[in-house]
């Protein structure tokens, strides 16, 4: 069987099974068993493939995923996240568009910990948009920042999705996490600048309203008790990883322990919150592990059938410049993001794109960061980006898709500008890992 026939069989069976409603992880598993039966010698090949897949689940690099997820679930269910949102809101005072800034700052913290852009968008959309509309904010000032927070959440550590991508691509987990720090800060600056510019161009977009005056002493107290401890947990684990004192798995454990201690100190830790947090983290972890299993076996099948080698050789035969090939891969990710969820896209593309990137001479950490940003941009790309429809589902009645599209564009532009900067100056991503 030719390589393109093998590739068409494997990808086609996966797409068909997902199209008829089978869960992603199970679709990959079924297609992999079919492929192993055809390419690896029947029952013996299936047994070997399953053994190899189980071996992929024993990797130490997977440990941060459940711990980061548990950290985020505790942060949400104990109410620590709500306290931080409220404190940031009060500290910003009469700043024009302050609720938009609160959404970016607080939403980034929550969605980074939760590891789910869709969950974060649903929560913030139902929580913040009605309040901002009640205070007279125009739709693009309320919806846009929420759609933008995912771009920050996916690259600023701790990011469960970054850990999963690094594991699937078999690259250094800690290096990919740390690589997102500087680009993440730049993207946050772009978002804040976008909101500031919008309020300058149209002051009526975010009307000012009276707030209760606070003394400097109270502001300092609010900052030190409600914001610094929450943000401090994330800052500490990032510093520990950068300095090399801990591995990503140990950093994730310290992070989860830190949030537990904070919840106990603030007297908001309960058995009910712990129960909900563990169940929530367990559900996502099981899905992630099934996905790792499916990806590991899928990569082996692509290699065994000759599909991955044939595809790479075919792509190279066009003699496109590396930048042109990167643009093609970026466009493919944007297209897939209109119809599929991020993890599903990673399953399909990582086994193909990373060998191609390596052949083109791209640094794997730098390329991983570009891919993460591409996935997040694709999630908010009109007309079919999935986050756009999540926002439509939770936005107040009367919100049109046109309003959601126009709200997303400035923040999409910010993310694309960051990608251009990373291509022009790869050191923005590689400086911290090089330390």
Strand count, sense and closure of the main sheet? Answer: none
| Average pLDDT taken over every residue | 80
Radius of gyration: 22 Å
Approximate shape = globular
End-to-end gap: 47 Å
Key words describing this protein structure:
435 residues; mainly alpha; 21 helices; 79% helix
Polypeptide structure, described:
This protein has 435 residues and is an all-alpha fold. It contains 21 helices and no strands. The model has no long low-confidence stretch (mean pLDDT 80).
Summarize the SSE layout with pairings.
Elements: H1 3-19, H2 24-39, H3 43-56, H4 64-77, H5 80-91, H6 98-114, H7 117-134, H8 139-153, H9 160-169, H10 173-179, H11 181-201, H12 216-243, H13 248-265, H14 271-305, H15 307-317, H16 322-337, H17 342-359, H18 364-379, H19 386-394, H20 401-424, H21 427-434
Helix pairs in contact: 1-2, 1-15, 2-3, 2-14, 3-14, 4-6, 4-9, 4-13, 4-14, 5-6, 5-12, 6-7, 6-8, 6-11, 7-8, 7-19, 8-11, 8-20, 9-10, 9-17, 10-21, 11-20, 12-13, 14-17, 15-17, 16-17, 16-18, 17-18, 18-20, 19-20
Short description:
This protein is mostly helical and 435 residues long. The chain is built from 21 helices and no strands. It is 79% helix and 0% strand.
